Amino acid sequence: MAQKYGYLANAEEFDRNRACLVCDDPQPNYSWTDLSGEGYCLRCGTPYQLKWGTLTDGEDYPRCNIRPEWIPPMRTFWKEKQKPNGQGTFLGFGSYPDQLAGREAFNSWCHENESLLPKEKESNDP
Ligand SMILES: [Zn+2]
């Protein structure tokens, strides 16, 4: 699958031995999304900040860009479907048909598995 920005994400400086939180790939490969410094796991689609962005105390790269409460359902989706979840930041999907198919599959799965999803809180995002 041709990637819009190639595989250059793997050339960045970050911990190469940090397993993916969703698919457990011990040495994930990443491709860029359309968000500066964000790459997605080529196996499962989970987005990680590989550089730039804002790190909080104790964080370093790669830093998962998914809220922790969503990791368990995303792991279940991966185990059941073995498809990318398509949750990276994409301005359009023309260059990412696999991620679009994955996002659609994940959205459908979420509708069928609402009991497994985190309860949405009142937004406390900044
Ligand atoms: Zn992964």
Name its key features.
single chain, 126 residues, alpha+beta, four-stranded antiparallel β-sheet, 10% strand, globular, binds zinc ion
Can you offer a commentary on this structure?
- This protein is of the alpha+beta class and 126 residues long.
- Helices cover 21% and strands 10% of the residues.
- α1 packs across α2.
- The relative contact order is 0.16.
- A hairpin with a 5-residue loop joins β2 and β3.
- The chain has a four-stranded antiparallel β-sheet with strand order 1-2-3-4, with no helix packed on it.
- It is built from two helices and four strands; from the N terminus they run ββββαα.
- The radius of gyration is 14 Å and the shape is globular.
- The termini are far apart.
- It has one domain.
- Bound molecules: zinc ion.
- The site of zinc ion has 9 residues, from loops.
